[in-house]
Design goal:
This protein has 179 residues and is an all-alpha fold. The protein has eleven helices and no strands. Helix content is 69%, strand content 0%.
Length: 179
């Protein structure tokens, strides 16, 4: 009978994992399996005090206690958050601006395992502004024509001084990142 309980438990836990079930459902399954183990393997276990067999209930009861948000926050999450906050470096102004700049959008659905493909099809194709397109068509094309890849890779191991000056003069190195 014990192998059947193990198989039922594995199927139950796999199902809970696939459904991303809340912690109280994990606790309920553990307690039910532990009680079934006590009753099926030894019908007198509920009457006879067998502390080692009753220890099977402890993980389920711990999960049940942690399923209560205020207790979990006071005992587990709060102290862990405080410890991590002391260890991690502060977020710079630039990093905070990048974090606040937008949302993860469809990527979150994809990496979360539940992509909404119709939403992806609804995302409009990004386009360049006329100023951006003019920059690509003008200075970018010119600097690409100025660079001799063979000379750069095999003779100089660097771009020519003329190319570097052109890059400086035309705003290629003009992006500022604050700290």
């Amino acid at each position: 009978m014990f192998p059947i309980l193990v198989i039922v438990g594995l199927i139950g836990f796999a199902t809970l994992a696939m459904r991303r079930a809340p912690i109280w459902q994990w606790a309920a399954l553990w307690v039910v399996l532990a009680l079934l183990n006590l009753v099926i393997l030894d019908p007198f276990a509920l009457v006879i005090a067998d502390p080692f067999r009753w220890l099977l209930l402890v993980p389920g009861l711990i999960l049940a206690i942690f399923s209560l948000k205020p207790i979990r926050k006071a005992v587990l999450t709060g102290p862990a958050y405080g410890m991590v906050k002391r260890i991690l470096p502060r977020v710079s102004r630039t990093e905070q601006e990048a974090l606040d700049a937008g949302t993860v959008g469809w990527d979150a659905e994809l990496f979360g395992g539940k992509p909404d493909w119709t939403r992806l099809l609804g995302v409009r194709k990004p386009t360049l502004s006329t100023e951006e397109q003019a920059f690509l068509d003008g200075p970018v094309n010119k600097v690409c024509a100025m660079i001799d890849d063979w000379d750069t890779r095999n003779n100089r191991a660097d771009m020519s001084p003329e190319v570097w000056q052109y890059l400086k003069d035309n705003g290629f190195l003009g992006m500022l990142i604050g700290t």
